[in-house]
Amino acid sequence: MEKVKKFVFIIFFQIIIVNAQNLSLYEKENWSTPETEIDKIVFSTLKKLNIKPAYSSSDEVFIRRIYLDTIGMPPELEEVINFLNDKNPDKRKLLIDKLLERKEFAEYWSMKWADILRIKSEFPINLWPNAVQAYHKWIIDSLRKNKPYDKFVRELLTSSGSNFRVPPVNFYRAVSGRDSYSIASYVCLTFMGVRFEKLPEDVKENISKFFSRISYKKTNEWKEEIVYFVPEYKEPIETFFPDGEKVKIPPDKDPRFVFADWLIRPENPYFSRNIVNRIWAWIFGKGIINEVDDIRPDNLPIIPELLDYLEKQLIKSNYDLKNIYRIIFNSRTYQMSFIPKDTSPDAEKYFAFYPVRRLEAEVLLDIICKFSGNGIEYISQIPEPYTFIPPLRRNVLLGDGSITGDFLELFGRPPRDTGYESERNNRINEAQIRYLLNSSDLHKRIQSSLYIKEILKETRWDKKKTIERIYLSLLSRYPAENEIKIIEEYFKKEGISFNQAVEDIVWAIINSKEFLYRH
Q1: From CA 358, how far away is CA 371, in angstroms rounded?
Q2: Which end of the chain has the smaller Cβ count within 10 Å, N or C?
Q3: 456 lies in a domain?
Q4: How many domains does the chain have?
Q5: 254 is a domain residue
Q6: Which domain holds residue 278?
Q7: Tens digits of per-residue pLDDT, 373-418?
Q8: Domain boundary, last residue among 293, 327, 350
Q9: Does the global pTM surpass 0.85?
Q10: Which residue from 375, 392, 355, 315 is spatially nearest to 149, judged by alpha carbons?
Q11: CB proximity list for 438: less than 8 A, separation 6 or greater
């Protein structure tokens, strides 16, 4: 094992040095993507600040990036080859459209929504498995149908009924408390990006009144719960919306509907800005307003015109979220290289290059499982009913935050206790590095990989073809000539079989930043 690790280190550091000398693998000076309104806004800001934007990403970088950012998985080997050989100048735009319609788009982005909606069976959320499954499926179906965002939120805020049979009512059960203040806090955080505890007391009191007539009751079915509006009150509710507008609600009218109708109005100062800012942060690693769930008057957008533009586009498209993704993905700002062209400390702050970020725990594990040809089986016996997740199911589809594993916890999957974006930790640490270099499980997965065996069968143990296939599969690009030279020399090392050399190369690549990070 020590001998293997030594060889891995040798090839690992040699490849890093080579990559640093081959920047043309990752970027190109000439743009094939037309300038968009986003680019006019961002580049105008950069020009005022005397900051140079990065070059265009190469096609190799772009295809891996757009697959990971839309469907949470890298492209297949043949998809990479076809895209790189495609001479159509609109191929990036066409690929974006295609990926946005794939079922994996809804599966991947359901993971993001499950985080902020706190989908979890056990403490402290206690939704219970039946409710978790119904809620998660409803979110995936909503994303697949591209349900307008205003309708999606309105259903969450106004639904009543059984937590098993009316999935969106679980929004009112995934709260730390059943009191109106706890519910109002959750609503503000999720759909307004506002920290409730930082609001003035009178504002908190007024918002909480909209959720003061919600009640819960058990049924004869175990763990089933009904969420409903209590109509018995005789007095109207007099309160204020967060923007200061006064409202009087009759006693027979559910105040949640009144709040929801106010929230989703086009002129609302919170609703559209919050979600487009979140989407931007999900794609770029940080929001135009940062932190995304701490929007307040003294936390201003870094480029106000950019936020205004995206907000208007969302409203204009009747709250079509895919349209926002499409607009962002088709911009040069998104398609820029990750290699900065300016040393200014403000270059990253103003989106002068694509920010390098480590893959999410679930995405990283999905790639490793797919390449090894061996998934992970999850069984949760507490609470009942028992939950069984088959090994072929993607880890991004783990709808229950209570069902987890050592890898997911090590690599920063959020516990889904608070709904804060900061719960997810995508930073690399020493424990993760030690796992990737020393894990016997990872070593066994590589040794028994059906994917590698298939590559060797297709290439008939030809060194150069094997190297190319591994690179295309793991990094979505062909190896550079000097990378091939280094690895071919490694094949000649005394005491290393062809299969062992291939396994070491795979292990070295999995430990590389190019594999572990979005770039």
Answers
A1: 18
A2: N
A3: no
A4: 2
A5: yes
A6: 31-104+274-350
A7: 888 999 887 777 788 888 889 999 999 999 999 999 999 999 999 9
A8: 350
A9: yes
A10: 315
A11: 5
